[in-house]
Amino acid sequence: MKNMSSKDLNRWIGSQIYKARVARKLSQEALAEAADVSRVFISQLENGNGAAKIDTYYRVACALDISLCELFRGNENDGLLDDILFLLNDCSPDEIRAYMELLRVVKNRFIPIRK
User: Fold this and answer.
1) In terms of pTM, does the model score above 0.70?
2) Which among 26, 62, 94, 115 is most buried, taking Cβ atoms within 10 Å?
3) CATH class of the domain at 6-73
4) Inter-residue contact 41 to 32 (CB < 8 Å)
5) What is the pLDDT of residues 57-104, one digit of tens each?
């Protein structure tokens, strides 16, 4: 993100908002209502066609149940998380719980404990 133009930065932050919103299965309207802004404004932010004051970004982050740090930092594993969400998209809640338990067992058995 170093030396990014303000336009590129707006696009990047917008993509972070979009990814977080989609991951939480929120519509633009639902996010806008929770953040006390308009749906059009959320659309502008997501498309990189607008910017917000820090308190508005804070309300958007809270509505997404993430911190400002998460909103601005992003996640280097976004692509991997998108792949996982895609794979689980058509699973029932019981199947998702079963996969989660399988992941816990594999992680606890084969990945060394972090200190």
Assistant:
1) no
2) 26
3) mainly alpha
4) yes
5) 999 999 999 988 888 876 555 566 666 777 788 889 999 899 889 888
The Cα–Cα gap between 25 and 31 comes to: 10
Tokens of 74: 């992003």
Spans of all domains in the chain: 6-73, 78-110
CA dihedral 40, 41, 44, 49 (to 10 degrees): 140
Q: Give the pair of three-digit tokens for residue 77.
A: 């594993």
Residue pair 90/104 in contact by the 8 Å Cβ criterion? no
Please calculate the CA angle 13-19-103 and round it to the nearest 5 degrees: 130
**Three-class DSSP category at 108:** helix
Q: Tokens 């059009």 belong to which residue? A: 40
Decide if 49 contacts 7 (C-beta within 8 A): no
What is the distance between the alpha carbons of residues 99 and 58, in angstroms, rounded to a whole number? Answer: 33
